[in-house]
Each structure stands twice: as C-alpha cells, then as structure tokens.
C-alpha cells in the first residue's frame, strides 16, 4: 500500500513536471520527457492547456505531434480552441484550425453553450473570429445546422439595434421608413427608444457582471489548483525523502546484520574448537602448530581463572576482616559485648573511652561491658 501511495505521488509529480515544462516553454526538456515516458491523454491535455495559456505555439505543436487531443475539455467545458480563442492567441488558433479534428473543435459547445467563434467574438478577438469564419466558409461547413448563421444574424441585429439607439440618444433623427406618401415615419417612439436603451444598458451591465464573476471564479479555481499542486509536490518530496531515509536505514541494518552473522559464526567455530580441545577429542586430527596454539590458549585461560579466583578470595577475606574490626577505630578486633543491647562492635581500647556512654550501633545506654575472646 505504501508503494502504491508513493507511485501515485510520483505519477502526479511527473504530470506536474510535464505541465511545468510546457508552461515555461522548455521545449528540449519537454521533448526528452515525452520520449522517455508515456504520459496519459489527461496529462497531455493539462500540458497543452498550460502551453496555450503561456502562448508557446512551438510547444503546442510538439504536444499535438505527440498525441495530445485538443478535443478534451477542461473544468468549464472548453476545448483547446476555446481556450486559445478566449486568450486571443492567433498563432495557436491557427494550429488547431489546421488540425485533423478542426471540425469537431469548431462545432463544440462549452458549459455556457458557446462555440470557439462565440468566445472569440464575445471577448473582442475579431481577427480570430474572422479566421474561424474563413475556415468554416472554405471548408463548406453547414453553418445553419450548427446555428452559426443564426448566431451571426442575431449579433448583427443586436449591433444594428445598438446603433439605432445610439443615434437616437445623440439627438439625431430616429430610424425611419418611407410610407406610401413618401413621408418618413419614426420606427420607434422616443419613450420606446429610451426603454430599449435602458434595457440594453442593463443587459450589458448584467452580462459584464456575469463575465467578471465567471473570471473571478475561474481565477479562484486556478489559485486553489495551484495551492493543491504545491501541497502535493511538497508532500511528494517529503515522501521521497522519507523513502530514501528508510532505504538507507534498511541497507545499514542489512549490512550490520551480515557483519553480526559473520562474527557469530566465527565465535561459534572458536567455541566448538575450544570445547573439542578441552575435552581432548580428535586431537590426532590437529597439526603440531594447532596443538601448540591450543596449549597456549588453555594456559592463558587457566592463568586468568587463577587470577580471578585470587581476587575473589581476597575480596571475601577483606569483607570478613572488615566485619571483625572495631566500628570506632577500624583497626583492632571486636572484643567487648555491650549490655543491655548485646552488640559486639568495639575493641577493648575504644570501650574504655569516657565519651562512649551509648552503643555506637543502636544508641542504647551502656549499663555494662563484658570482655569476650574469639
């Protein structure tokens, strides 16, 4: 499970690195990464959109050549051409319009129901909108089936209506038409024009607010995504460091275990050989040098045993002497029994001291002193 978690974080790190190289325009590194790895379509899509946002047309071309699918959508339903049209990147749009899936890209609707043409036109990128229209015309697209003609007509009607209202607001004569008598009748009354103008202004303000709100939400989502990506990268780095530390500890433990096993085997062999020599078994199988070495080892062991025995004997004698010495002078042997506590703890000389009126051990008043012989 830990391995799967590490692998998952490594995959995320690889995807983020792919997107980072695409965003920064490091095309050489990106080409090497595409050559040594097999990124998924989702990873390629993320890298493609990063390159579009950074306006790296050469990176976009490289990703398309390596299998990136421009038809894949982002969180708002935009394909690659939607994004390029939104950003107003004419060079990048040209690449997608030459792509084999250009028809699907042009006909696609995002979550707001907009085609790439709508997006470019709504954001004021008229050169891109004209280029898209030219491509559709040259390719004999059926615009009426996909609603392009209706949308264009609606936009033209709206522009004409805005021009009419603007003219009327500027004090000029309102739009008119000629009746049968050749007189010019107003198309709209002043009150109707004012109402229409106010309504148009309100709709324009609401549309602008909606766009600003959408952009703010998109900016917040991008910020949250970047924060999440940074957190994942830090977590991935931390996990890699922990894994590296664990691997080093495991390697050190394995080496230490090997050394200990070797030392244990040598000790066991030495003990077995020593026991064989001590027991006098199979001595005829040993060489003269081995016998001499064994004899020296045995003599050294015997000498160490003798010294240890001597130390233990002297320690016991010292303890016994300490027990038999007077507790006051620590020199003479204990020989006086004190009553009534019956402690034998002082020598004859110390018992005659005038200041000794209480037993040195229990502090009982001394009523009588009796000499003993041991």
From TrEMBL:
Renumbered ranges of ANK repeats: 43-75, 76-108
InterPro entries xref list: Ankyrin_rpt (IPR002110), Ankyrin_rpt-contain_sf (IPR036770), Znf_RING (IPR001841), Znf_RING/FYVE/PHD (IPR013083)
Enumerate composition-biased segments (Polar residues).
188-199
Source taxon at top rank: Eukaryota
Which parts of the sequence belong to the RING-type domain?
326-363
The reply on keyword Metal-binding is: yes
Q: Where is the composition biased (Basic and acidic residues)?
A: 200-217
Which keywords label this protein? ANK repeat, Metal-binding, Repeat, Zinc, Zinc-finger
GO function terms (MF aspect) = zinc ion binding
Region Disordered: which residues? 164-217
Entry keyword Lyase:
no
- Protein name per its UniProtKB record: RING-type domain-containing protein
Which organism's genome codes for this protein? Chaetoceros tenuissimus
């Amino acid at each position: 499970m830990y391995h799967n978690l590490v692998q998952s974080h490594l995959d995320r790190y690889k995807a983020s690195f792919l997107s980072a190289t695409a965003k920064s325009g490091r095309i050489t590194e990106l080409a090497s990464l595409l050559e040594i790895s097999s990124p998924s379509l989702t990873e390629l899509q993320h890298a493609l959109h990063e390159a579009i946002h950074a306006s790296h047309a050469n990176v976009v071309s490289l990703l398309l050549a390596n299998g990136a699918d421009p038809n894949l959508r982002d969180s708002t339903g935009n394909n690659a051409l939607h994004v390029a049209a939104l950003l107003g990147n004419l060079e990048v749009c040209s690449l997608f319009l030459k792509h084999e899936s250009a028809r699907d890209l042009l006909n696609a609707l995002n979550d707001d129901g907009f085609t790439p043409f709508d997006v470019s036109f709504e954001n004021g990128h008229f050169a891109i909108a004209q280029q898209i229209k030219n491509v559709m015309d040259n390719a004999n697209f059926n615009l009426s089936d996909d609603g392009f003609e209706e949308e264009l007509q609606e936009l033209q009607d709206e522009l004409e209506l805005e021009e009419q209202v603007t003219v009327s607001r500027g004090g000029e004569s309102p739009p008119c038409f000629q009746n049968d008598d050749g007189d010019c009748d107003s198309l709209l009354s002043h009150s109707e024009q004012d109402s229409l103008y106010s309504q148009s202004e309100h709709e324009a303000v609401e549309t602008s607010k909606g766009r600003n709100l959408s952009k703010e939400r998109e900016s917040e989502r991008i910020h949250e995504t970047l924060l999440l990506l940074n957190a994942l990268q830090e977590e991935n780095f931390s996990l890699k460091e922990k894994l590296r530390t664990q691997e080093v500890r495991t390697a050190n433990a394995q080496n230490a275990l090997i050394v200990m096993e070797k030392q244990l085997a040598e000790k066991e062999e030495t003990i077995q050989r020593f026991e064989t020599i001590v027991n006098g078994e199979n001595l005829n199988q040993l060489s003269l040098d081995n016998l001499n070495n064994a004899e020296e080892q045995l003599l050294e062991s015997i000498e160490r045993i003798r010294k240890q025995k001597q130390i233990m004997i002297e320690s016991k004698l010292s303890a016994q002497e300490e027990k038999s010495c007077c507790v006051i002078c620590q020199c003479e042997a204990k020989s006086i029994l004190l009553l009534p506590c019956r402690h034998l703890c002082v020598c004859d000389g110390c018992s005659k001291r005038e200041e000794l009126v209480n037993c040195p051990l229990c502090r009982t008043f001394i009523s009588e002193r009796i000499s003993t012989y041991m």
